[in-house]
């Protein structure tokens, strides 16, 4: 979840960067903004997307009805930044505002709920009504719990230990620094309720490739990194209320398309808690589904 907060923070870094500020001032503002995301006991992020231009019709029909939500809450009541590993989180995938998938992590126990009746409302869904009904009858509309003890026994230790390895953390820090430096050195302009800046995909690719060891011998060119990106943010006082990133690039034979990801931020008093009427998953149940856990 810390990685999610870092990504959201970098995307909205312009929030406290005044138009025309020096790179040093913008970088300091970025750090302040990232810190502000965890300054309260709760944080809500809503994500939505759009796709316009050449070849975008089918994708836009799907994106128009889909939104995603991320909720974070400290189980200690302290600010998220001061709660270390005591932060519960929730991710929802929604069709026209109604969740079809809800995943929660509360005290490292995993909970999930799937409502397949909402999937039929997604344009172009390939699952038949009969299949959706069968899935709904079996597991739909019910909360399941995957206890942390069982989760630890299912996930191989080598995979679990590698998640927070020093090498991964170092790579992550390099990527964040590279994107941060690109943002703070790109001129920004004022908008009606915030700030915005535009750069080339080539500049973004060069910054990212330089930070990743696997790309160390690859040099992006204008031929394979075409297009531009725009980062924008809306603010209220000294706080960001939303951010977006748009990418415009060639799509199809004779046209361009623009894909946009938009996020809104809030700090409502909403805690992520254990749902009611939960079915606890056991090793025996997992083995019956052929998931490799031995009873």
Describe the structure.
By secondary structure, this protein is α+β, with helices and mostly antiparallel strands. The protein has one domain (2-288). The protein is built from nine helices and twelve strands. It has helices spanning 2-11, 23-37, 57-63, 129-138, 148-154, 157-162, 166-185, 201-211, 283-288; strands at residues 42-53, 66-74, 87-95, 98-106, 109-114, 143-146, 189-190, 194-200, 228-236, 239-250, 256-266, 278-280. Strands 7-8-9-10-11-1-2-3-4-5-6-12 form a twelve-stranded mixed beta sheet. Helix 1 crosses helix 2. The chain is globular and about 55 Å long.
Distinctive features:
about 300 residues; 9 helices; twelve-stranded mixed beta sheet; 12 strands; single chain; alpha+beta; about 30% strand
Sequence-ordered SSE layout with sheet pairings:
Blueprint: H1 2-11, H2 23-37, E1 42-53, H3 57-63, E2 66-74, E3 87-95, E4 98-106, E5 109-114, H4 129-138, E6 143-146, H5 148-154, H6 157-162, H7 166-185, E7 189-190, E8 194-200, H8 201-211, E9 228-236, E10 239-250, E11 256-266, E12 278-280, H9 283-288
Parallel strand pairs: 6-12
Antiparallel strand pairs: 1-2, 1-11, 2-3, 3-4, 4-5, 5-6, 7-8, 8-9, 9-10, 10-11
How many beta-strand elements?
12
Query: What order do the helices and strands follow?
Result: HHEHEEEEHEHHHEEHEEEEH
- Beta-strand content: 25-35%
Q: Tell me the distance between the termini.
A: 31 Å
Count of discrete domains: 1
């Amino acid at each position: 979840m810390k990685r999610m907060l870092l990504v959201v923070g970098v995307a909205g870094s312009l929030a406290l960067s005044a138009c025309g500020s020096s790179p040093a001032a913008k970088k300091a503002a970025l750090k302040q903004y990232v810190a502000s995301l965890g300054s309260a006991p709760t944080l809500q992020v809503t994500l939505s997307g759009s796709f316009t231009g050449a070849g975008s019709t089918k994708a836009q029909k799907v994106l128009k009805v889909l939104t995603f939500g991320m909720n974070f809450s400290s189980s200690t009541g302290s600010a998220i930044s001061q709660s270390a590993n005591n932060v519960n989180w929730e991710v929802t995938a929604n069709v026209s505002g109604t969740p079809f998938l809800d995943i929660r992590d509360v005290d490292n126990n995993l909970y999930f709920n799937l409502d397949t009746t909402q999937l039929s409302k997604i344009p172009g869904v390939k699952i038949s009504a009969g299949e959706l009904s069968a899935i709904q009858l079996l597991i739909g509309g019910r909360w399941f719990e995957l206890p942390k003890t069982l989760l630890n026994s299912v996930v191989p230790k080598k995979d679990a230990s590698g998640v927070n390895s020093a090498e991964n953390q170092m790579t992550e820090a390099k990527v964040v620094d590279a994107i941060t430096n690109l943002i703070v050195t790109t001129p920004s302009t004022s908008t009606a309720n915030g700030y915005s800046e535009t750069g080339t995909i080539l500049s973004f690719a060069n910054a990212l490739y330089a930070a990743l060891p696997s790309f160390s011998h690859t040099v992006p060119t204008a031929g394979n990194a075409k297009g531009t990106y725009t980062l924008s943010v809306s603010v209220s006082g000294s706080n960001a209320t939303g951010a977006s990133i748009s990418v415009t690039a060639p799509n199809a034979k004779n046209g361009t398309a623009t894909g946009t990801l938009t996020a809104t931020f809030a700090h409502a008093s909403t805690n992520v808690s254990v749902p009611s009427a939960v079915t606890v998953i056991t090793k025996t149940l997992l083995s019956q589904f052929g998931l490799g856990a031995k009873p």
